Amino acid sequence: MPAFRDRLQILSATIILLAATSTGAIAQKKYDTGATDTEIKIGNIMPYSGPASAYGVIGKTEAAYFKKINAEGGINGRKINFISYDDAYSPPKAVEQARKLVESDEVLFIFNPLGTPSNSAIQKYMNEKKVPQLFVSTGATKWNDPKHFPWTMGWIPNYQSEGRIYAQYILKERPTGKIGILYQNDDYGKDYVKGIRDGLGAKAASMIVGEESYETATPTIDSHVVALKSEGADIFISITTPKFAAQSIKKVAELGWKPLFILNSVGSSTGAVMRPAGIENGQNIISTAYNKDPTDPQWNDDVGIKHFDAFLAKYFPEGNREDSSVVIGYNYAQTMIHVLQACGDDLTRENIMKQAASIKGLQLEGVLPGITINTSATDFAPIKQFQLRTFKGERWELFGDVITTEVGE
């Protein structure tokens, strides 16, 4: 009998040991550089100075949102350490800051670096290092290329798609019009122009009467606007970042020019562009949106915007709710939190990308109804939908249906 009891005790001990071992295997935590039991270190690069400094508020909004997350207990008990540097919208500076974040600060990944030129400059480096360059703040089509750049993913709708939408609108509303295009001389501007030309098809050659490009270092684009008016254009498309968008609106008004005015979405913030340009000068301008405008009365009782306002009041009181960059920063941050929560205790760079490429039907609080975030291993373009809008009075008014348009490489 004692021998049986001994065998039973040994068997019980073995079962307990096996159970403990298997449970340990299931709950095993996996970390890469930048993640621990208590911290997730995230890098970021923003133009807090320079020609695109109006976008710097995106980084400030994200910092405030992560502060909120930390105050509420963090991500699975881990606090976010958000390290954000200024690159002044300068590609060489972006490279310097990316290297500092990866090699010196040892972040887990770089989240939402802003600008087509800056992201282009660091893309090869990030992929060679196998460090996620995640949810980049630019809509160039090149960010949706998981085959060649599996560590880089976009977020906002791509510029070619938006350009196609403007072309479709022009063909419907002003099919015999003459188009003048002002654009930034880089991949950002050229992507829009390609989308417009593709959307116009065979009519592009006859309808586009002038194209003027500008460099980000130039102090003013006034001469380019004058040149396009002199070409006889009665449709003006301004593909510009906030500083130059405001300049283009002011100059068109100063010239007494009355074209059908189309302004790209990334340069259409009420607070950062329309007000500085003069509300009276922005009437009837056409653009697109995928984010909610917190100043639009239709969202007065919207739960998502109420949460957004509560966040601003407590964590970012200096944030201007009229500035679309604030709500977009809020949306970027919520997307990142969704991915980190999905990662659980596997905070490896590989799993970060895996979860980022596995988003299905995510509806963010600050994004328009009917527009959801979707990704896959072969689709690194999270948002593919827009809605047209026009500037009336002191705000943008949405019109038409949500439009889905996808453009490949």
Automatic annotation (TrEMBL):
SUPFAM superfamilies: Periplasmic binding protein-like I
Protein name: Branched-chain amino acid transport system substrate-binding protein
Signal peptide location: 1-27
Native organism: Bradyrhizobium erythrophlei
Domain Leucine-binding protein, chain residue ranges per copy: 39-388
CDD domains referenced in this protein's UniProt entry, alphabetically: PBP1_ABC_ligand_binding-like
InterPro entries, A to Z: Leu-bd, Peripla_BP_I
Keyword Signal: yes
Record's keyword terms, sorted: Signal
Gene3D superfamilies: 3.40.50.2300
Domain of life per record: Bacteria
The family this protein is said to belong to: Belongs to the leucine-binding protein family.
